[in-house]
Design a protein that fits this description.
The chain is α+β, with helices and mostly antiparallel strands. The protein contains 16 helices and six strands.
Length: about 375
């Protein structure tokens, strides 16, 4: 929320500092701004019929646009060509939708300028295709309202191919994400406790067993792993393909290649899912490939502990120690109370030959979580 407000503030500051011409000094009104924006956007349909109204609303050579704010892009001046007869060089193919709905959230009047924030929804055959949030600056040029600043972000900019929750349990999604977070930070006992609760509350939910599976696998309890897997397997009817393959990847009856196959399939159906990317990378022996897999997750979750932790280890495997240190540092800064962050950083220092620093990290990990007995043992060996 703060970042969104900051964007609008920056747009307002641009106006105050840019020194726009004040020749048309008549102050804008809420009504004329609202009508201008609403009508101009709603008329962006009908192919060729939409061209003139669309470009008439832009200040040629002075409209600074910033689309796709979630991506690594910069603002740019919007330029368009005009024919000798004054018509615009556009075939109108971009205005293919049937209808457009616009919602104005806020109009902030600043004398001769106005800041407008809103949402646009484009429709084809009754289906909402594009959902866009925007913020714009409008002024009057030669008596006509024009956009001079436009910033927007589409809902489609955000990755959404993640594993679905096949449960109707109230609060189930939030608990599931908490369980996954515990798994990713090697807090397997906590993950199991959450898993136990979810299994009890929704006995038909296969993914509710995930924390249990991870826990029993981590402590090498073969019988309990098999028992838990069999229960989860019996609940796979009607689930999504990603969910099915993720559960099958935990099968204690298959070899590593079959596990990799199921993770590949799960990643195909839920390519943006952090947990699946993490498990896929964990099971990838080629460090370069593993790094490529995780960098896709890092682009979306650059401060996530599990992402940085795994990247740190894979870069160490590649001998890129400076890169490894950077990711371990991000991990420990973001999760200063997580034992695994210190244990991992301890491994880094141990490999670098800094026994004093490694021991300090291992003991800190054990201090934060006395289940990290492995950290204590590594400290004692130094």
């Amino acid at each position: 929320m703060f970042k969104k407000k900051l964007i609008s503030l920056l747009l307002i500051l641009v106006i105050s500092q840019a020194g726009f011409s004040q020749k048309n000094s008549k102050n804008l009104t809420d009504e004329e701004v609202r009508n201008f924006v609403t009508n101009q956007i709603k008329n962006q349909v009908g192919y060729k019929n939409a061209v003139k109204g669309f470009y008439d609303a832009l200040s040629n050579g002075n409209t600074l646009i910033w689309n796709g704010l979630s991506r690594k892009v910069k603002p740019a001046i919007l330029k368009f060509e005009v024919n000798s007869d004054g018509s615009y060089k556009s075939d109108g193919s971009g205005f293919y939708e049937d209808s457009v709905n616009v919602i104005i959230h806020d109009i902030y009047l600043m004398g001769t300028h106005a800041n407008v924030m809103g949402t646009i929804q484009w429709y084809v055959s009754g289906v909402n295709t594009i959902y866009r949030n925007f913020s714009s600056i409008i002024t009057r040029e030669k008596g006509i309202l024009k956009y001079i600043r436009w910033a927007s972000s589409d809902n489609s900019d955000y990755a959404s191919k993640v594993i679905t929750h096949s449960t109707k349990l109230i609060g189930g999604g939030a608990a599931f994400n908490e369980m996954r977070d515990a798994m990713l930070n090697a807090e397997f006992k906590r993950a199991k406790l959450i898993s136990d609760t979810l299994v009890q509350k929704d006995p038909n939910w296969a993914l509710a067993h995930l924390g249990q599976l991870q826990y029993y696998f981590s402590i090498n309890e073969k019988d309990k792993t098999e028992e838990c897997f069999n229960k989860a397997f019996s609940k796979l009817n009607g689930v999504s393909s990603a969910e099915r393959h993720l559960i099958l990847a935990y099968s204690p009856y298959e070899d590593i290649e079959t596990t990799k196959y199921h993770l590949d399939q799960a990643l195909f159906f839920a390519s943006d899912d952090l947990l699946i990317r993490f498990l896929k990378s964990m099971n990838e022996t080629n460090a370069k490939i593993a790094i490529e897999i995780m960098l896709g997750a890092w682009q979306r979750f650059p401060t996530n502990g599990a992402v940085n932790n795994l990247l740190g280890y894979k870069y160490m495997q590649e001998g890129q120690m400076e890169k490894a240190k950077q990711h371990f540092e991000i991990y420990i800064r973001q999760y200063p109370k997580t034992a695994n962050a210190y244990d991992s950083y301890g491994d880094y220092y141990a490999k670098m030959g800094d026994k004093k620093k490694a021991k300090e990290m291992y003991l800190k990990a054990y201090e934060l979580n006395n289940e990290f007995t492995g950290s204590k043992k590594k400290a004692e060996k130094l």
